[in-house]
Automatic annotation (TrEMBL):
Domain of life: Bacteria
Entry-linked InterPro entries: Aldolase_TIM, DHO_dehydrogenase, Dihydroorotate_DH_1_2, Dihydroorotate_DH_cat
Names of required cofactors: FMN
Statement: the UniProt record of this protein carries the keyword Oxidoreductase: yes
Name of the featured protein: Dihydroorotate oxidase
Keyword line: Flavoprotein, FMN, Oxidoreductase, Pyrimidine biosynthesis
Domain Dihydroorotate dehydrogenase catalytic: 152-351
Matching Pfam families: DHO_dh (PF01180)
Pathway the protein takes part in: Pyrimidine metabolism; UMP biosynthesis via de novo pathway
Length: 353
């Protein structure tokens, strides 16, 4: 691991230990000062200091969210929660990956190990763990209250097959529970690769439409984002955009690209039962940018009005600007921020120069 930077999530510790003991590195202490942006931006109908933040996943609980807000990440997504407790996969959950050349969207095989060298690409494999709502609801409410002027906490959630008679109902219940915490913006995760690459909910448009309507019926008054995976071409996503026009407020994309992480002997690096993992960081930036550019172009062509949160491999001002240029209304960084807790400060400082 790079000795200079301690990531705020420790890949060598279990999810539970990170939850209890983290965040680590700089995020363990609040900074002495912050950076004031002279002008705020608009995100939906909210003022935001800088439309930059951390997407669903790395901010496990209120301690993490408070640290991220303190370090100037103005849009913080509280980790995806469920309507019932759901255990994390065992270690390893995060490995460094070393693709040869450009990672494709075709489930490539990639070398994975614990050598976290920059620029970092990782595989993450957690299975979207969640505590019971009795635990996460008061904690999320605490996180929401920590947002200062120009900052916002977004509540991410997903339905779980089997928790309710239908998945639509479980998404709606999860949305209601998140709404009760006071989170001003909701995000439904439809793109978890750990539920099976070919089974991602976001590729089943009829179901997505039903899920979106069920959530909106349950919580009509809050903006709703859908977290999407990578769609390789216009025709693949157009029907979804048309079905959801006027139903939801925006898309957050991308989640991860799927790949098969293997060790030096060519064996599954996560475990034999988890041959595929979600890839994030440097290796997927091309796909995040491509998806954002496509959504922005289709938004203009269709004269739709959704908001786009661009995600994927952002670890510098240049990357932030590339996503904004591609049409993202806001930009988020998971892997980049985990290994550089100063990232929002660095971007703000550079913008002010
Ligand atoms: C440790 C970790 C946990 C994640 N967990 C979730 C999750 O629970 N829900 C979700 O929608 N995305 C999750 N993601 C995906 C991120 O939100 C993001 O879409 C992805 O990491 C790509 O961004 P990046 O290249 O900046 O890491 C997770 C990512 C990481 C690194």
């Amino acid at each position: 691991m790079n000795n200079n930077i301690t990531p705020f999530y420790d890949p060598l510790l279990s999810y539970e230990d990170n939850y209890q003991q983290g965040p680590f590195g700089d995020f363990a202490y609040l900074p002495k000062s912050s950076i004031v942006m002279p002008h705020s931006s608009r995100f939906l109908n909210f003022d935001v200091n800088l439309p930059f933040g951390i997407p669903a996943g790395p901010l496990l609980n209120a301690k993490y969210v408070k640290a991220a807000l303190g370090y100037g990440f103005d849009l913080c997504v509280y980790k995806t929660v469920r309507t019932r407790a759901h255990k994390s996969h065992p270690l390893p959950n995060v490995l460094s990956i070393h693709p040869k050349g450009k990672l494709s969207a075709e489930v490539d095989t990639v070398l994975a190990d614990h050598d976290f060298t920059f620029p970092i690409s990782i595989t993450n494999s957690f299975g979207v763990p969640s505590f019971d709502p009795d635990v996460w609801q008061p904690d999320m409410a605490d996180a929401v209250l920590a947002a200062k002027s120009g900052q916002h906490v977004i509540g991410s959630f997903q339905g779980t097959p089997g928790n309710e008679a239908t998945i639509e109902q479980d998404y709606a219940n999860a949305a209601k529970l998140v709404d009760e915490t006071g989170a001003p913006i909701l995000e439904a995760n439809l793109s978890c690769p750990n539920e099976g690459v070919n089974k991602l909910l976001c590729f089943d448009f009829t179901k997505v439409e039903r899920v979106a309507h069920a959530i909106k019926n349950a919580v009509p008054n809050k903006p709703l984002f859908l977290k999407l995976a990578y769609f390789a071409h216009d025709d693949a996503i157009l029907p979804l955009l048309k079905k959801l026009d006027g139903v939801i407020e925006g898309y957050s994309t991308i989640n991860t690209l799927s790949a098969k992480p293997v060790d030096a002997q060519g064996q599954p690096a996560l475990s034999s039962t988890r041959p595929v993992g979600g890839i994030c960081g440097e290796a997927i930036r091309w796909a995040g940018l491509d998806m954002v550019a496509r959504l922005a172009r289709l938004r203009a062509e269709l004269i739709h009005h959704f908001t786009i949160i661009g995600v994927g491999g952002v670890s510098s001002l240049e990357h932030y600007q590339a996503f904004r240029h591609a049409g993202a209304d806001a930009v988020m960084s998971a892997t980049g921020a985990m290994w550089n807790p100063q990232l929002a400060f660095e971007i703000k400082r550079a913008l002010l120069e």
